[in-house]
Specification:
The protein has 129 residues and is mostly helical. 83% of the residues lie in helices and 0% in strands. The longest helix has 25 residues.
C-alpha cells in the first residue's frame, strides 16, 4: 500500500514539475507575443473607430504608423521561421504602408484602407497559428 501511495505521489509531483517547466520554457521569449499584442491593439483601435463611426484622420494615421513600425520587429520576434512566413510579413508591411499612404480621412476610406491589412493578417494566422 505504501509503495502504491509513493508511486502515485511521485507521479503527481512529476506532472506538476513538468507543467511548471513547460510554462517557464514557453514564457522565456516574450517578444513574439508582445509584437502581436501591440499590432492587435492598433488594429483593434482602427476597427473600433470604424464601428463607432468616429474616425479621426490624425488618430488613424498614428495607429497605422505604429502598426507599420511594429511590423518591423516581426522577423526579429520570430527567428528561424520559414520563408513563406516572412513573405506574409512583407505583404503585411506593404499593405499597411499602402493604407498609411492612402491617408484615410473618413470611416469609409479607413475601412477600405485596412481591409487588405486584415486579409493578410487572417491569412497568416490561418497558416501559422
Amino acid at each position: 500500500m505504501r509503495v502504491a501511495i509513493s508511486i502515485l505521489l511521485g507521479l503527481v509531483i512529476g506532472i506538476i514539475g513538468t507543467v511548471s517547466l513547460m510554462n517557464t520554457l514557453h514564457e522565456r521569449n516574450p517578444l513574439p507575443h508582445a509584437v502581436m499584442s501591440v499590432m492587435a491593439h492598433h488594429a483593434g483601435a482602427l476597427h473600433t473607430a470604424v464601428r463607432a463611426q468616429r474616425c479621426d484622420a490624425v488618430q488613424a494615421r498614428q495607429h497605422l504608423t505604429r502598426l507599420l513600425e511594429t511590423q518591423a520587429d516581426i522577423s526579429e520576434a520570430f527567428p528561424g521561421v520559414d520563408q513563406p512566413f516572412l513573405d506574409e510579413a512583407a505583404k503585411l508591411h506593404d499593405k499597411t504602408r499602402a493604407a498609411l499612404q492612402a491617408s484615410p480621412a473618413d470611416c469609409a476610406a479607413l475601412a477600405a484602407a485596412i481591409k487588405p491589412v486584415d486579409e493578410v493578417c487572417q491569412s497568416c494566422h490561418q497558416q501559422y497559428r
